Automatic annotation (TrEMBL):
Gene Ontology terms, MF aspect: carboxypeptidase activity
Pfam families attached to this UniProt entry: VanY
Protein known as: D-alanyl-D-alanine carboxypeptidase family protein
Superkingdom of this protein's organism: Bacteria
Keywords recorded for this protein, A-Z: Carboxypeptidase, Hydrolase, Membrane, Protease, Transmembrane, Transmembrane helix
Length: 259
């Protein structure tokens, strides 16, 4: 019969103690390995994210640049900027289409203009195009008439010209000479003044003109940039894409072509 001996017991503890120490060592090594794997994987994920982000940002930057180039092409016929500092070139070619009421517009905007007028009429409205393409001579006579009417208040011809230019563009600087602008009034209210904005026709046009490629060219808060006072009747064709962007952002053509 085996009897329990104290030396056997201490030997058992010695062996058991060595085993525990071994396990601890192994556990520490495993922990270290786990840490290395964790940091390695984290670093790889971060690198991957930075890489993807870099590509996406570069792509966005590139497409932004392309958009800017596309938008900044002020020489595109529909985005041509005409104002006091951007006169119409001497030999600007123009192909006109005559409307039913005798007015003329650039042939390229005829279809969209017609569609816009038809859509307004189908809503029971009565918009009336009271001015569209003007020759340089016509523009000159309108401008001269305005200068004369300003002479009373202005002390000099120079001052009268300055005042007149806020209301009527000097010849060579009016969009009407491009055939891309139309003045539209309500049949029931044909005055070219601020009251025009209250007519159902203007309310509809301001809301829907961009769907047909037109913008309200001289908004009330952009006179500093356009050089022309608020005209809630003057619509300019710029094409549907540009029109929707301009009206959505509440900017003027000067700002759009410089974006
Ligand atoms: Zn006008």
């Amino acid at each position: 019969m085996n009897r329990y001996r104290p030396e056997q017991r201490s030997a058992y503890y010695r062996v058991s103690g060595r085993e525990t120490e071994k396990h601890r060592k192994a556990a520490r090594q495993q922990k270290r390995k786990d840490k290395i794997v964790f940091y390695g994987v984290s670093a790889a994920i971060i690198c991957l994210l930075v890489f993807i982000c870099g590509f996406t940002c570069a792509d966005r930057y590139r497409s932004g640049q392309e958009q800017t180039v596309e938008r900044a092409d002020a020489s595109a016929w529909n985005l041509r900027l005409v104002n006091a500092s951007h006169p119409i070139p001497e030999s600007y070619p123009i192909d006109l289409t005559v409307l039913k009421n005798g007015q003329s517009v650039d042939s390229r905007i005829y279809r969209d203009l017609q569609d816009m007028m038809d859509a307004a009429r189908s809503e029971g409205l009565s918009p009336l195009i009271c001015s569209s393409y003007r020759t340089a001579e016509k523009q000159r006579s309108l401008y001269e008439a305005k200068v004369v009417s300003c002479m009373g208040q202005a002390g000099s011809r120079e001052e009268a010209e300055k005042q007149a230019a806020v209301w009527v563009a000097p010849p060579g600087t009016s969009e009407h000479e491009l055939g891309l602008a139309v003045d539209i009034v309500a049949e029931s209210y044909q005055l070219l003044d601020k009251g025009q904005e209250e007519t159902p026709e203007q309310k509809w046009l301001m809301e829907h003109c961009s769907e047909y490629g037109f913008i309200l060219r001289y908004p009330s808060d952009k006179s500093d940039m356009t050089g022309i006072s608020y005209e809630p009747w003057h619509y300019r064709y710029v094409g549907k894409e540009a029109a929707e962007e301009i009206m959505r952002q509440g900017i003027c053509l000067e700002e759009y072509v410089q974006m």
